[in-house]
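Weekly modeling sync, notes
Attendees: S.R. (lead), two postdocs, one rotation student

Agenda item 3: backlog of single-chain predictions. S.R. asked that every request posted to the team notebook include the full sequence so nobody has to chase files. The rotation student volunteered to paste the first one in as an example of the format we agreed on. Action items at the bottom.

Example entry:
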Amino acid sequence: MAHQDPKQEIINRLTRLLLPRTNKVPAGNLNESEQETKNKTLRFVKERSLPGRKAYIAVFENEQGHEVYFTCYVEQDAKELWQFRGAAGDGIMGGTPGPIMEQAWANLGGGGMPDHFYAGGLVADHDRHIVRVRLISKNGTTVEDQVESGMVLFISAQRVDLPIQAELYDATGTLIYSHKVLS
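Predicted structure, as returned to the notebook:
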C-alpha cells in the first residue's frame, strides 16, 4: 500500500524484506528519521529529491549486528502517493564495504536507467581524502555529490545511459581515481 510519506513507504517495504515475521514494523509508525524494531534500527542517512521523486540511503542493522546499506528510490503516483520503485543493497560483512580495493573506490548500487536514474553507496577513501564523486554516463549526463560520512547519493532528471564512469576528487579538485560503476 502506498503512503503519503516516502520514508514510511521505504520502511514498510524494507522491513517486510529484512525482518522475521515477529519483528515487523506496524504500518504508520514513523519516528522522524529512525525506526526502532526490537533491537534493530533502520536509519535514513542521506536524501536527494526531484519533483515527485526521491532517493535515500537507508542503513539497517541485520540479525548478526552488521550494517546493510540500501539505496532506495520512490516516486509519486497520479494520486500523489509515494510508491517504492527500487532499491540496491550492500551488506557490510565484518566492516568491509563492497569489493576490496587498494585505491579510492565508489561502491554504488542503483537503477532506473535510462529515464529514472538513482544511485548511491559507500566511498572507500584509503586516506586519499575524497570529497566529491562525479558520474559521467555514456550519453554525457553528469551528476555530482559531496562525500558525507563516506557516502554519496545521486538522482537525475536527465537520461542516463550505461556505461557510467565514476571520478573521485580530493579537496583541491585533483582527480584521484576513475572507474566504471553500475555496469
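Discussion: group reviewed the output briefly. Residues 6-18 form the longest helix (13 residues).
Action items: rotation student to repeat for the remaining queue; S.R. to check formatting next week.
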